[in-house]
Amino acid sequence: MWRRAVAVRFAPQRRFFSTSESDSESQTLYSFLQPSLFSLKPTPSPPRPQSPKPLQNPALEDLESALNTSLSTNNTDEAWKSFKALTTNSTFPSKSLTNSLITHLASLHDLYNLKRAFASAVFLLEKNPALLDFGTVQTLLGSMSSANTAAPAFALIKCMFKNRYFMPFHTWGSAIVEITRKNRSFVAFLRVFNENCRIAIDEKLEFMKPDLDACNVALEGCCHDLESVSEAEKVVEMMSVFGIRPDESSFGFLAYLYALKGLEEKIVELEGLMGGFGFSSKRVIYSYLINAYVKSGNLEYVSRTIFWSLKEADEQGPNFSEETYCEMVKGFLKNGTIKDLASLIIEAQNLEASSMVVDRSIGYGIISACVSLGFLDKAHSILDEMNVQGVSVGLGVYVSILKAFCKEHRTAEAAQLVTEISSLGLQLDAGCYDTLIEASMSSQDFQSAFSLFRDMREARIPDMKGSYLTIMTGLTENNRPELMAAFLDEIVEDPRIEVGTHDWNSIIHAFCKVGRLEDARRTLRRMIFLQFEPNDQTYLSLINGYASAEKYFSVLMLWNELKRRISADGEKGVKFDHNLVDAFLYALVKGGFFDAVMQVVEKSQEMKIFVDKWRYKQAFMEVHKKLRVTKLRKRNIRKMEAVIAFKNWAGLNA
User: Fold this and answer.
1) Could you tell me what percentage of the chain is helix, strand and coil, using 3-state DSSP and rounding each to the nearest 5?
2) pLDDT more than 70, % of the chain
3) N- to C-terminal Cα distance for the chain?
4) Which of 148, 291, 527, 619 has its CA 20 to 30 A from that of 467?
5) What is the 8-class DSSP label of residue 244?
6) Is 292 exposed, middle or buried (CB count within 10 Å of its CB: 0-12, 13-18, 19+)?
7) Of the candidates 415, 344, 355, which has an alpha carbon nearest to the alpha carbon of residue 386?
8) pLDDT band for position 30 (50/70/90)?
9) Cβ atoms of residues 632 and 641 within 8 Å
10) Which pLDDT score is estimated for 6?
11) Residue 550: per-residue pLDDT
12) Angstrom distances, CA of residue 200 to CA of 132, 205, 242
């Protein structure tokens, strides 16, 4: 191939590209130009006009001056009018003005002016190519690449060749290559590529020699789109003529084509050539071979190629791309079975180096490809099939499925898979558990979160604080105090989890918030039994809860319980602060327990806590406005004295 001598001139070639493809290309070009510049429909030929007379010098100078001024002021439409007026009368502006106009039009990044720039360049190539600078054409092609307009770009190159306007390949080749790859317009590129090579050889123009990138695009078109061995080998011969050294991609494209056509002897020859060019490892072509065998449905050769690649691989694995694995999976699921994929992974594991990183293994690649393709259930089925055969994969393989389950909010299945993983003797890290638990809580799948946390405890994960806080926070936000209480009761004796009074306070507060006051009280008794000291926040939540339910007697019971625990600083008991004083006073005044009210007042005065009396005056007037001291004197002297004391303190007697 590359070493074979070929004639310097191209031999006459059969027409490989169909007329329909050429027509399609023309249609695309005209659709680019319509409706602003050219019309696709034939129009009746007008009467032949008389040849226009060239402009006289004064008129020419005026139009050139107008064109120059319009370009200087960015008045694009006026500049275009001046240019058309000049060219309509068989006159051209100066070279610098001509190139400035086309460069200006091409740089505006809008399709309409790009059409103007294209039409101007083609017109000049046909009429006076000497006026056109290489840099201007290069700028125009760059704008076409940015706008992704393939047909006019190829038409421009063909017009250059037709009018013997030969530019160095490096000035236009990269733009055409980029356009070709974006649009996969390989057929159009091959026409331009072949014509460029013919001109370079016939005219002996070294500067028109294509580069390796262009040759590889031509090869890719021949091998992947046309699937033509003869056309591909013509490109190879041209590379040999021009002395262009192939790279790994060059061999890969040919390997793909030969594998697709079943030319195994050609693949062997190709492997020998690779060694001759200094490529010591043949694994660069394995991905191409696998893709070709998958496309032809030859799963046996897919497996064989994978096993070959593993024999050459180190601990980094064969380095197949995600795209290759995805094609592999789609091929096996179309032409094979889940069992075939499981067997492939098992056989591959027997060949993989013991030191190979898990996420470089064949099993990881296949399972991850299933996940990427949305075949989660099939990925799980592959692992089930392997387990049936008594073979397991590395932890990393399972992690990719777990992450996908979380992404799709299938948290119950994720929790079940974690149980399976644990039964195989594999252990997830704390970060993975945190992610799974967070996903479960976000989906309000609380039972899965609890199950995962139990697995964490059984796996003896040392750092459980993050997951614990995630569960408690999620339950609080979702107003599920009964689950919080059950969860806390289950883990309270685990030394790895630091449970404090604030955790119990969260549960009590949540119960009070939803009006479940008996459960809140029961939680208080439970925390005291477990030797957790209630604090000011504990009682504040209970007082507010009872007050909201108008259970003022329960507030009185709380005061009788609390007054023995009061401490100035909170170190040896409950800290008695302004918030507690305010909550007690308001609830006790509303409930009419004035003896207790005055006890709270005395305690606040003793501890020098400021009290705003206005709030309690209002509460008294709302509830006890009609209360008569004379009636109380007959029934309860002590209560009468307490009411009088309160009214004196609050300033109500005035």
Assistant:
1) 70, 0, 30
2) 86
3) 116
4) 527
5) P
6) buried
7) 344
8) very low
9) no
10) 29
11) 87
12) 21, 5, 10
Give strand pairing partners of 575.
Answer: 567
User: Within 10 Å of residue 434's Cβ, how many Cβ atoms?
Assistant: 21
Instruction: Say which residue the tokens 């006459």 belong to.
Output: 12
Single-letter amino acid, residue 512: C
Distance CA 521, CA 62 (A): 98
270 burial via Cβ count (<10 Å: 0-12, 13-18, 19+): buried
Q: Buried b / exposed e across 466-480, counting CB within 10 Å, b at 16+? A: ebbebbbebbbeeeb
Omega before residue 35 within 30° of 0, cis: yes
3-state secondary structure of 75: coil
What pLDDT score was predicted for residue 630? 52
Mean pLDDT of 312-335: 86
Backbone angles phi, psi at 564, to 5 degrees: -80, -15
Q: Give the single-character DSSP code of 53.
A: P
What digits encode the pLDDT tens for the residues 497-513? 888 888 898 999 989 98
Task: Count Cβ neighbours within 10 Å for each residue of 315-343 and write b for 16 or more, e otherwise.
Answer: eebbebeeebbbbbbebbbeebebebbbb
| Rounded CA separation 501/639 (Å) | 37
Average pLDDT, integer, range 131-143: 95
Site of tokens 């409706």: 35
The candidate with the shortest Cα–Cα distance to 166, out of 216, 129, 119, is 129
CB of 449 within 8 A of CB of 474?
A: yes
What is the residue type of 631?
Answer: K
Closest CA to 106 of 135, 128, 85, 136: 136
Token digits of residue 324: 């290759």
Position 539: which residue type? Y
Sign of the Cα torsion 266, 268, 270, 272 reads negative
Q: Which residues does 162 contact at the CB level (< 8 Å), separation at least 6?
A: 125
Which token pair is 162? Answer: 């037709």
Nearest to residue 423, comparing CAs of 450, 404, 398?
398
Report the chain's mean pLDDT, rounded to a whole number.
Answer: 83
Mean pLDDT of 72-100: 88
